[in-house]
Amino acid sequence: MFRSERQYISRMILFLYCSFTMFVLGYLVWNSFRSKKDILTNTIGWPKEWSTQAYINIFKEDHFQLNIFSSVIILIGSLILIILLSSMVAYGLGMYKFRFKKGIQFYFLMGMMFPMQLGIVPIFLIIKNMGLMNSVWGVMLVMAAGISTPVLLLTNFFANLPRSLYESAKIDGAGEWKIFWRIMLPLASPIIVSLCIVTSVGIWNNFFVPLVLLQNDNVKTIPLSIMKYTSNIMMNMDSALASSVLATIPILIAFFFFSKRVIEGVASGGVKE
Length: 273
What we know:
Organism: Niallia nealsonii
Shape: globular
Largest sheet: none
Subcellular location: Cell membrane
Membrane topology: Multi-pass membrane protein
Pfam families: BPD_transp_1
Keywords: Cell membrane, Membrane, Transmembrane, Transmembrane helix, Transport
């Protein structure tokens, strides 16, 4: 009886949290189709008229499409680098035994404990010396360095795979690269999909790294563009709402279609057989 009551309370808390979140998102979208004057003078009332002018203005006057393009390029490039680097590292850690293996795993575990902000000064100097300031490539490299979580999840997955798969491929004459690329990596696709979705949220919404490395308006990401509007929120209320909606929708769509794969992938990487 106590267990059922606890489950009921947990479900009610989750229901209230989800309801509040949906209300906030709905209110955000609803107000984005109102004029600035209507938002400020009739905040909680029914709108006098519906308008898409805010969306038109941010694309026509502020060239918001450039911010979207920068965010998309950084997201795709960072995900490709993260998956390639973390899968190869994890394959080596999970499939082979060698000296200092535990130390390397501990190194990646420590990487989850320290935020990127602690090392932003040397990161800034390295990117500047490489000539990648005001470039999406510099942001990609910095974002791709955060592979601690992918490495740990994939390492556990590769370590739990039957050794017979590797030995059979070896007997058939397959080399190390072919075994990894043709056999092991496809088997890890559930975890890779979940990692892509979860990691993409942090990359898409990342504010700090682009703020430090991107000063040119033409290459700034969506969060930096939204900051431009919120710095003077009363004058740019409509633009801030419209840009926030455009920044939120892609992530919501991704989670809506891939939420099941995310749960399956995390379970595959985290449960030992």
